[in-house]
Amino acid sequence: MKFGPVSVSKARGAILAHSIKPEGGRRIAKGTVLGDGELAALMSAGVATVVVARPDPGDVTEDAAALELARAIVPEPHVQGLRISGAGTGRVNLYATGPGVVRVATDKVAAINGGDPMITIATVPPFHRVDAGGMVATIKIISYAVGGAALRDACASAVGALAVAAPVLKTATLIETVIGSDTPSDKGRASMAGRLDRLGVSLAPRLLVPHDTAAIAAAIEAATSDLVLILTGSATSDAHDVAPEALRQAGGAVARFGMPVDPGNLLFLGNRGATPVIGLPGCARSPALNGADWVLERVVCGIPVSAGDIAAMGVGGLLKEIPTRPMPRRAIEGDGN
């Protein structure tokens, strides 16, 4: 593509690079392909030169290039859960067609952005939860046109770069434990119901059981939902505490206790047969984002979560203060931290 100032008399068919308003005339927007009317207005106003872009043979103009790349990224919109917007000023956006978790092949996104720097895509982080209509990515062609070969390379790198994993689990049981005779607040249940509702998961009627291994184990065994959640009246502070032991007693297994995300450290993840079981940290009683969300959302959307996956969540591990924390994370006098 050629770019720079040219005489108005030689600008027919070129793309105006900068908006201009001839004296006494209407504004001509940047990106306008200059035709006879625009040129006449410029010359009558005494404008001698304009800055323009003129694609070379084989170049693809910005809007066409952005759409071509979008279609390479999303060849099957219904399968990938993505919608392609229209193109304007070299930009095309990708939106989720329903709730879910975004799967990003970071190597493919890096390959697209590592070619011609005029061809770009920005995405939400991997495993980001989206609602229907949420923006997942924006494609932007920075220049007014790009070389066809560079665009073809970007499109070849784009296959499999993005998709939204839709929820596959439909029902959940929340087991809440009670210590003594006090009925716990329903705040935790309300927060979990909200999280699940966003993903189209229905919550079984409230289930309160004593904070006792055998009682929790019996509740796990009796649950018929796609997912079992456990919210204990007292924090689970060890891999052999009441709730993890109850899962084992019920014939299940604990894959991971503890996560390097704060708030959310005291989560455990396991299963009983094909049913995933998540032991929730106390912070799940708050609707604020916490580590349990990252595990819950993936599990509901059918994305396997291993102990290694949870270990990797420490990079970007939230570090967000919450009002309910009894000992706020602040420097303690003399500790130097």
Structure description:
The structure is a single chain. By secondary structure, this protein is an alpha+beta fold. It folds into three domains: 2-54, Molybdopterin biosynthesis moea protein, domain 2; 59-165, Aldehyde Oxidoreductase, domain 3 (Alpha-Beta Complex); 171-312, Molybdenum Cofactor Biosythetic Enzyme, Chain A (3-Layer(aba) Sandwich), CATH 3.40.980.10. Helix content is 27%, strand content 26%. The chain has helices at residues 36-44, 62-73, 77-80, 106-113, 148-158, 187-198, 213-222, 242-249, 291-300, 307-312, and strands at 2-7, 15-16, 49-54, 59-61, 82-84, 91-96, 100-104, 119-123, 129-130, 135-141, 145-147, 162-165, 171-178, 202-203, 207-210, 227-231, 253-257, 268-272, 275-279. The strands form five sheets. Strands 13, 14, 15, 16, 17, 18 and 19 form a seven-stranded mixed sheet that branches. Strands 5-6-10-8 form a four-stranded antiparallel sheet. A three-stranded antiparallel sheet has the order 1-3-2, with no helix packed on it. A hairpin with a 6-residue loop joins strand 5 and strand 6. Helix 2 (62-73) runs parallel beside helix 5 (148-158), helix 4 packs antiparallel against helix 5 and helix 7 packs across helix 8. It is elongated.
